[in-house]
Amino acid sequence: GQSLEQPSEVTAVEGAIVQINCTYQTSGFYGLSWYQQHDGGAPTFLSYNALDGLEETGRFSSFLSRSDSYGYLLLQELQMKDSASYFCAVNPRDDKIIFGKGTRLHILP
Amino acid sequence: ETGVTQSPTHLIKTRGQQVTLRCSSQSGHNTVSWYQQALGQGPQFIFQYYREEENGRGNFPPRFSGLQFPNYSSELNVNALELDDSALYLCASSLVSGGAGELFFGEGSRLTVL
Fold this sequence. Notes:
- The complex is a heterodimer.
- By secondary structure, chain A is mainly beta.
- Helices cover 0% and strands 60% of the residues of chain A.
- Chain B is mainly β.
- In chain B, strands 2, 4, 5, 6, 9, 10 and 11 form a seven-stranded mixed β-sheet that branches.
- Chain B is globular and about 40 Å long.
- The mean pLDDT of chain B is 91.
- The A-B interface holds A 30-31, 33, 35, 41-45, 48, 50, 87, 89, 91, 93-102 and B 2, 4, 33, 35, 40-45, 48, 55-58, 90, 92, 97-100, 102-108.
């Protein structure tokens, strides 16, 4: 089957750096995406990796290694507003887009 | 704001009833996907519509059905509601199907089945 695994919760300190990992079991997918969701809100797109390597968008970076079936989201200079749930997602060739269960990020002042 | 609007935002139904949820996609987007998100879980793919045709379906029973209209707006219909159908239903629009397109989500319709 197809699945994504990510930690259920991560805690970090304001101003620090945190990495949220995502491992997956699927073959033949277009790429790995990351979404942020605040409580009561809609998921919002953060980044996308079609190719192996690092993509940087401001304070957020995302990495993909297809050979390792692994990716991560890196958040730098953490701010309190970054407290949210973060989901990795893959779009397999059959278009049945799969999301992970999400990682809840807690930020301490 | 994503430009994707959903209605109603909240609704309560009883077991066995039917519900219709609506979604207006972002202007110019021809693909709409529907997701079910239970509390504390990730969004689960229900189905996707591309130019009014179903284009991919997740592991949901046939009582979950949908439509996409010529203006690319969409409906999700759920018949014979069960208690486990209580969830946040999210609509997402995108420019392309079957690729890397960014998904633009609406705020969702929160369904409670009693």
